UniProtKB/TrEMBL annotation:
Belongs to the NAD(P)-dependent epimerase/dehydratase family. This is NAD-dependent epimerase/dehydratase domain-containing protein. Residues 1-228 form the NAD-dependent epimerase/dehydratase domain. It comes from Catenaria anguillulae PL171. PANTHER family: DTDP-D-GLUCOSE 4,6-DEHYDRATASE-RELATED. Pfam families: Epimerase. The lineage of its organism: Eukaryota, Fungi, Fungi incertae sedis, Blastocladiomycota, Blastocladiomycetes.
Length: 229
């Protein structure tokens, strides 16, 4: 099994779950947003392998897919705000999330059928400010370069499945929480912030009037869903 982005919050939890189930797991990650300390405790595991590399580097991706049967594609440029403020970051976001995904698909397709399925971590930003309750078949409401680049990944997954016969599945994550979630900074959701506040014996702040709501899903549930996909 290959997990791209396997040193990140969700990826590292998926890797642990796969190892617990008896799989051999290889991680491909450039460590640009993930952290090696998330998987450092696994380096001596007999069924774990780490490969430092970028999904924009096709030879690195081809090396990573060699000998694997399933690919979990979680690697992404996931910084929404920078993609809106900086044209260079918007370009990098498109390259990583779209062209990088095409590299993963091409490398998987070129294994001659050895890769049985590619499972893609899509994004709930697909829905934008659409009507609630949200439906899987709702039209996209893409508000940022990040959301459009992640949706482009979904489109490529569908193309490679229908046109080239490479089985793919795309799963749109909502607000994921659990072990190794960010607890500070722009990308820390309320669960991570509250955990840190509780650890520091501080009050839990309520933003706005307290009437806002979000859909949350535990990272282990995400991992199990990815495996069942």
């Amino acid at each position: 099994v290959l997990v791209t982005g396997g040193s990140g919050f969700i990826g590292s939890n998926l890797v642990e779950l796969l190892l617990d189930l008896g799989y051999k797991v290889r991680v491909l990650d450039n460590l640009s947003t993930g952290y090696f300390h998330n998987i450092a405790h696994l380096v001596d595991h007999p069924r774990f392998e780490f490969q430092l590399g970028d999904i924009l580097d096709l030879p690195a991706v081809e090396k990573a897919v060699d000998g694997v049967e399933y690919v979990y594609h979680l690697a992404a440029m996931s910084k929404v705000a920078p993609s809106m403020k900086d044209p260079k970051m918007a370009k990098y976001c498109l390259e990583t999330n779209s062209l990088g995904t095409i590299n993963v698909l091409n490398a998987s397709r070129n294994t001659g059928g050895a890769v049985k399925k590619v499972v893609y971590a899509a994004s709930s930003t697909y829905y934008g400010n659409g009507k609630t309750p949200m439906r899987e078949d709702a039209a996209p409401d893409l508000l940022t370069p990040y959301s459009s680049s992640k949706y482009e990944g979904e489109i490529q997954m569908d193309i490679y499945d229908r046109i080239f016969g490479l089985p793919t599945v795309s799963i749109r994550f909502m607000m994921v929480f659990g072990p190794r979630q960010p607890t500070s900074g722009a990308y820390a959701i309320v669960t991570g912030v509250f955990v840190k506040k509780l650890q520091d014996d501080q009050p839990l702040p309520i933003e706005g009037d307290g009437s806002h709501f979000r859909d949350f899903v535990h990272v282990r549930d995400i991992g199990e869903t990815l495996i069942l996909a």
